[in-house]
Amino acid sequence: MTIDRTTSPPTSVGWLNGAGHRTALNVFMFVVLAHWAEHLTQAYQIYVLGRTPPQSRGVLGQFFPWLVTSEWLHYGYALVMVVGLFVLRKGFVGRARTWWMVAFAIQFWHHIEHLLLFIQAQTATPFFGKAVPTSIAQLIFPRVELHLFYNTVVFLPMVVAVYFHLRPNRAELTQAVCGCANRAAVPVPA
């Protein structure tokens, strides 16, 4: 019996970007949308209901108030996002990959901002002469609005990436390593 050494054994990352890409992408996007729901609910509580930011705790924060003030949760989500975007990138090709990597680059910076907040919270040492943990962009923008902005500028290129991923052109379809694409939507040359 001979062993074929030209192909490597399947890996978890290989499966996530191949046969399991659609499932992994759906789970990842569910987590992203649930996070969006939290931020939008918080914005609604502030701007429509007139609550102060500390009183505006989103959905989960109503039941678990400590979540809103926990930098563990915020940093954990930022880390899940950057890792998810990085791990799932290999399933994207062509235009979809370009947009996915734009989202990754922005999320990487967002992750750095959360890392700064996390370090300050864990060491009880606020930076920049502030009384509370503060990120670099928070020196200019309020935290609630800043995070709505960050989530928007990460989410929009993700949506464009998924659109192109599910509707590739002919060249991209030949490069695809997963079965996510709607093959019926690919234009056939005349």
What does this 3D model show about the protein?
- The chain crosses the membrane at residues 72-88, 100-119, 148-166.
- With 190 residues, the protein is mostly helical.
- It has one domain.
- 63% of the residues lie in helices and 0% in strands.
- It is built from eight helices and no strands.
- It starts with 11 loop residues before the first helix and ends in a 15-residue tail after the last helix.
Judging from the principal axes of the Cα atoms, what is the shape? Answer: elongated
Mean pLDDT: 88
Please tally the helical runs, counting DSSP H or I stretches of 4 or more residues: 8
Q: From the alpha carbons, calculate the radius of gyration and give it in angstroms.
A: 20 Å
Classify the helix fraction into a percent range.
55-70%
**Fraction of residues in β-strands:** under 5%
- Unreliable parts: 1-9
Helix-strand topology string:
HHHHHHHH
Structural topology:
Elements lengths: L11 H6 L3 H27 L12 H4 L2 H4 L1 H18 L5 H30 L19 H24 L3 H6 L15
Search tags:
190 residues, mainly alpha, 8 helices, disordered N terminus, transmembrane helix
Brief account:
By secondary structure, the protein is mostly helical. The protein has eight helices and no strands.
